[in-house]
Amino acid sequence: MEKLTDQILHDVIKPRPEHSFKGTFGKVTLVGGNRNFGGAIIMAATASVCAGAGLVTVCTDQSNSGALHSQLPEAMFADFTNDTQVASLVTAATTVVVGPGLGDDDQGLHILKNVFAHTTIQQNVVVDGSAITLMAQEQLTAPRGNIIYTPHEMEWQRLSGIKIADQTPDRNRAARDKLDATVVLKKHHTEIYAKEQTYQLTIGTPAQAVGGMGDTLAGMVGGFVAEFHQTPLKAVLAAVYAHSAIAEQLAKNQYIVLPHQISRALPTFMKKMEAAPDEHHIGFLD
Ligand SMILES: NC(=O)C1=CN([C@@H]2O[C@H](COP(=O)(O)OP(=O)(O)OC[C@H]3O[C@@H](n4cnc5c(N)ncnc54)[C@H](O)[C@@H]3O)[C@@H](O)[C@H]2O)[C@@H](O)CC1
Ligand SMILES: Nc1ncnc2c1ncn2[C@@H]1O[C@H](COP(=O)(O)OP(=O)(O)O)[C@@H](O)[C@H]1O
Ligand SMILES: [Mg+2]
């Protein structure tokens, strides 16, 4: 297993080209957030915006519209029960993030099937939270695209059939190979199962054990793969690393870290990381 270092940040986060516009940095469509879990998709969208995705649209329950706009005016809103609109927003995206707070009821299933029917082979598709649970429960076929699953250990148990206690690297890799996708297995020292290699995060803190932390990671992964689309796997690895690196910095002075604080720290963090390694100092929030 290859241990990730902050080199991955320097490999991925580069100064932005002068000749660019929002379209250069990808379009992310996020789908999730039912009446009860609106915060999940707002946190995910906040992470995508703060990571630097060019355009971000959120398909969610109508009741979340006001909260979304007041928290994140940079994002656009669509009603996730409008199948036609969701289909066209999914098709128009370069990256789709589906699942945070979607819910595993009939409404969530209907929306997920509509999303899965409209992704394309060129897109990155981040499948998180309820979308993973529904896929496992309903034995749904994976959608088209570069699929990135971001399960926690229980979601991975549901998707892979491997009980948490039996989730060894060898078994996880065999399950990944069957899925033919990138799997970000979230836990203390998250493991990333990619086609050729397995990577391990050796940073991160229990201060991250807070609801919404994974929703934020899903949005960050979506934002990074949209923005750094030339190197999608490295973008995933950099997002996973940055998420915990920022959390560790905040945890120096905080007992717990709020997920949105990670997102809000991203622009400053990324500015420090665009410089060559010897030009930055590690206390980037100082
Ligand atoms: N503010 C919000 O709106 C929030 C919404 N959320 C959404 O709620 C939905 C359900 O997700 P949940 O994960 O809460 O529920 P799940 O039922 O999918 O998973 C939680 C269960 O898994 C077990 N578990 C075992 N190992 C675990 C591990 N390493 N990490 C996490 N759980 C582990 C827990 O004990 C618990 O029984 C998702 O769509 C999620 O995005 C959550 O993210 C919490 C915050
Ligand atoms: N003790 C811990 N040490 C390091 N990271 C943790 C710890 N607990 C949780 N995390 C991280 O927090 C996130 C939790 O994801 P998830 O359970 O999906 O949260 P949610 O669905 O509530 O947003 C993952 O990225 C996981 O690696
Ligand atoms: Mg989650």
UniProtKB/TrEMBL annotation:
Catalytic activity line of the entry: (6S)-NADHX + ADP = AMP + phosphate + NADH + H(+); (6S)-NADPHX + ADP = AMP + phosphate + NADPH + H(+)
Residues annotated to bind AMP: 186-190, 214
Top-level taxon in the UniProt lineage: Bacteria
Domain YjeF C-terminal: 5-273
Entry's EC annotation: 4.2.1.136
Residues at which (6S)-NADPHX binds: 40, 101, 152, 215
Cofactor(s) listed: Mg(2+)
Record key words, sorted: ATP-binding, Lyase, NAD, NADP, Nucleotide-binding
PANTHER family assigned: ATP-DEPENDENT (S)-NAD(P)H-HYDRATE DEHYDRATASE, ATP-DEPENDENT (S)-NAD(P)H-HYDRATE DEHYDRATASE FAMILY MEMBER
Record's function text: Catalyzes the dehydration of the S-form of NAD(P)HX at the expense of ADP, which is converted to AMP. Together with NAD(P)HX epimerase, which catalyzes the epimerization of the S- and R-forms, the enzyme allows the repair of both epimers of NAD(P)HX, a damaged form of NAD(P)H that is a result of enzymatic or heat-dependent hydration.
Oligomeric form and interacting partners: Homotetramer.
Similarity annotation: Belongs to the NnrD/CARKD family.
Protein name in UniProt: ADP-dependent (S)-NAD(P)H-hydrate dehydratase
Natural source organism: Limosilactobacillus pontis
Originating gene: nnrD
